[in-house]
Amino acid sequence: MTSLPPAGASTPLAGALAADATRAATGLPVKRTRRAGASPWAYAGITVIVIYCLAPFYWMVVSALRRPDDQFSNQAFPWPISLANFESAFKPSNGFGRALLNSLVVAGLTTILTLVIGITAAYVLARLEFRFKNVILAAIIATSMFPGISLLVPLLKLFVSIHWINTFQAMILPSMSFALPLAVFNLTAFFKQMPFALEEAAQIDGASPMQAFRKVILPLAAPGVFTTAILTFIAAWNEFIIALSVTNKQDMRTAPVITSLFTGQYGYDQPFGTQMAAGVVVTIPLVILVLFFQRRIVEGLTSGGVK
Amino acid sequence: MTTAVQAPTPPAKAVGPMRQDRRRGVGRFAALLLSPTVLVLALVIGYPIVSALRLSFQVTHQGINPTTGMVENTSHVGLANYAGIFSGDSASQFWNAFWNTTTFTVAGVAIETVIGVAMALIMHKAFRGRGIVRASVLVPWAIPTAISGLLWKWIFQSDGIANTVLHTHVLWTTEGFHAWGAVLIADVWKTAPFIGLLALAGLQVIPGEVYEAAKVDGSGPWRTFFRITLPLARPALVVAVLFRMLDALRMFDLPFVLIGAHKHSVETLSTFAWYEASNLRYGTAAAYSTVLFLYIAVVAFVFVKVLGADLIGRGVEGKKK
């Protein structure tokens, strides 16, 4: 699920895009020949990539839009289009609407808590010099590689004994185990890029480190914080194993979990049409985020690890 | 890194105490701002890890109490949970899960890396349509794994689109090698674009002059790829592969949703430990998950020490040398 992007360096994509723009503007002959030579194959390759990435997603959307009677049709276009699958996904007995709300609460609160806690840590790790700094940063990064299952087994036992099963905190707290390292990692990379002259200027003006952080750094770091928020939210929204294990009541399930547990009319037939419709609903917010913030997301994912 | 504390420079006697004072202030400030993160991580990671270790040595027996005649659980400290890995019925199940975890990781990451690098090379060449490509590459990554498991389950139905397109009649989601293959395909689809993005970022920092120089020296495309592109993009690639491997080793959602819980052909260490825990055998579950944890730690260690994966990034560890 969540992969932790490596921290450290700048935003190479933005740089490359800027370089493209300059090339286009100056129209250097060398570049022009390279572009003309590369394009037919490159376009074919690009088409293959886009089809590879989107075809299964397209199939989910298409299957969701079929009439239940045509569900097993393998036509590339659903005709006539029907919203029956969406209606049955939102049928009260499925509890899907409530599950979406639960997902929003869990992912939203996880993101907010993670950012509030992680921002200060990332700032300290990126900007200040103190003892054991590398050890702490390495430890925080190391925590991101712990397998969810080895955290889950004891937590499950604990949550049973303190009656936390079917509560939001039982999903939010363990989610921070992957969200917090991810956020600290990304934010540290972002803070490192900011010029040190900012704090120096603030200090010359008599600001304490705390004031420099709050009044100077934080407002300027807003884009990085926003990118981190998107990545954290997506990771928390997609979380499955914790949400599956610490809930057993339908009205506390999150959307991905409840979708995977939908049962058909007779219990044994899997209602794929309904599940595809619910899958589309669960995925749409993320696809919208991806469409609007693709550049930021890519920058966040690739920040660092690149020398 | 901590030079100011270690080295009180003799000539600056007047400044010394003041500077030391400020350094101590910075240290205290840093500790204050770091403490929430450290505290939360200790709570949600430190505690469970220690607790899992303790649980894994707790052996539970179910027996009938001779005086009351009730079924009771008695537990004592011992190595039985780990011993079960090497003998008895659980041993074959464990090693099957271990084998599946390893093969999913090795095969999956190898295929993903090849496809991902190919994607990166193409994306690097393309000048127009970057936005569309980037957005579509992000779609598999953004779809929740559980949902993509459902989606692939639908695709792999007996009368589904996969069999129609391939003109086959494989029952993909039933036990067998094809189930393993189905999980692998679904995993590769979701994660190859992620490697592609990281590899692309690695390609983009290679200066164009290097390629021009290679061209002048008469280097062909393959030679250029293996001698220039790959070595220069290596740091980015090693980190991407490491992250993917750590992720693949703990694979849970895909086999669980696509094939089902406790299915022999796709059982991973994560799903096996989960199955044990869901049957309230916490001791064995903790033992299996501890083994998985150690396995992951060894892989990470090998990557960082042998292949030199720099996770922290330049500016911290990098400056040390």
TrEMBL record, chain A:
InterPro entries (alphabetical): BP-dep_ABC_trans_perm, MetI-like, MetI-like_sf
Subcellular location: Cell membrane
Domain ABC transmembrane type-1: 100-293
Gene3D superfamilies recorded: MetI-like
GO cellular component: plasma membrane
Pfam families with a match to the protein in the record: BPD_transp_1
SUPFAM superfamilies per record: MetI-like
Keyword Transport: yes
PANTHER family per UniProt: INNER MEMBRANE ABC TRANSPORTER PERMEASE PROTEIN YCJP (PTHR32243:SF18), MALTOSE TRANSPORT SYSTEM PERMEASE-RELATED (PTHR32243)
Protein name: ABC transporter permease
Automatic annotation (TrEMBL), chain B:
Lineage: Bacteria, Bacillati, Actinomycetota, Actinomycetes, Micromonosporales
Name of the featured protein: ABC transporter permease
Pfam families: BPD_transp_1 (PF00528)
PROSITE patterns: ABC_TM1
Subcellular location(s) per record: Cell membrane; Membrane
Membrane topology listed for this record: Multi-pass membrane protein
Family named by the database record: Belongs to the binding-protein-dependent transport system permease family.
Gene Ontology BP annotations: transmembrane transport
Xref: SUPFAM superfamilies: MetI-like
Keywords linked to the UniProt accession: Membrane, Transmembrane, Transmembrane helix, Transport
Species the sequence originates in: Actinocatenispora comari
Domain of life: Bacteria
GO CC, alphabetical: plasma membrane
Cleavable signal peptide: none
Transmembrane domains' residue ranges: 29-50, 104-123, 135-156, 176-203, 224-246, 285-304
Domain ABC transmembrane type-1: 98-303
